[in-house]
Each structure stands twice: as structure tokens, then as C-alpha cells.
Amino acid sequence: MAPEARAPVPVSREPQAGFTLVEVLAAIVVAGLMVAVLSRAFSTAWSAARAPAEIAGAAILAQSLIAGVRAVPGAVPVRGTARQGSFDYAIGTEIVDFEPRPSPAPSIPLDAGPTTRTAPAPGAGGGGGGGGETSGTGPAAGTRPGEPGSRGPQTGRADSGPPIPLRVTVVVKAPSGRSVRLETVKLVPGAR
């Protein structure tokens, strides 16, 4: 038997619809690069939007820590670190050494109170009294020295000495690495 002869299949030279493998791979690479660029841009924008809230939270925490330092007689300097929520913080106190300076203002005798002027009451205008001058030679009416509203010398507790300045420093570090530092001086009653 003789092999059968087959007729050659004609090859069509018409363009076929679809993409080649090279075109598909190039599209995937371009899409991957776009996703990488966009994800970096979004993460940068997200961290920039979150920064003010972190700084505000750190400042509020620092203020509350400073407010929590008690001004008690005979307070000793302290240092410490801790964590609250996602914030790390360090707090320290130290006694401030300073030399008191004399006041540049002239001293005013305590027994001579100021003279004040008051306006006349509405409807009380007219004749007799004039300018409504009153003079005082001591504390405000109805108060004793040391009471609120008095002009006399304020005396502290009998068992405390002169106040001692205490420097309080708080550094709060946010999760992003930003930090807030607050520092103040509190007057602590001195021990005798």
C-alpha cells in the first residue's frame, strides 16, 4: 500500500484577534509598578494625616502627667519611664537651685492700703457726695488677712517653710517616633 498523499493545508496570513504572551507580561509588569507607586503614596498620605492626631494625643498625655505631679512638702526628685496606650513617656523632677533677687519695685508698707475710687450708684447723682471717694487702710471689707479676697499678707500653712521650685519634665514618644517635650516649674511647699 502506498501512503496516501495529503493535501497541504493552506496557511492563512490574516491577523488573529488576541494578545501575545509578551504583551500580557508587559501589561502585568506595568500594572505592578503602578500599584507599588500608589501604595507608597497612600501610605505617606496616611501617616501624614495621622501625625497631628498623634502629636495632640502626646501633648495631652504630657499635660496630664505634669498636672498629676503633686506639690507636697518635702517632695524628692523622681525619674521614671512608662507606657500608656501606644505612647512611651519619661518623667523627671528636680529641685531648681536659684538665688533670690531683690525686687526692683519700691516696697509698700503693709499697714497703708490703697485709696480707691468708685463710681456713684445709678440714680444717686446730684448734690452732696461728689466723687464717691472711699479710702481703705487695711484688708478688703469683711475679710481677714490670709483669707481669699484680702489684700493682707498671705500666710501658708504653719508647718511649711518657703516654697521650693521643682522643675518637672515630661517627654512623650508617639508610635510614629515623633516626640513631645513639656517642661514647667511647680512651687512645692518647703518643709521646716
UniProtKB/TrEMBL annotation:
NCBIfam families: IV_pilin_GFxxxE (TIGR02532). The chain crosses the membrane at residues 17-38. Keywords: Membrane, Transmembrane, Transmembrane helix. This is Prepilin-type N-terminal cleavage/methylation domain-containing protein. It comes from the Bacteria. Residues 98-166 are annotated as: Disordered. Residues 112-122 have a biased composition (Low complexity). It comes from Prosthecodimorpha hirschii.
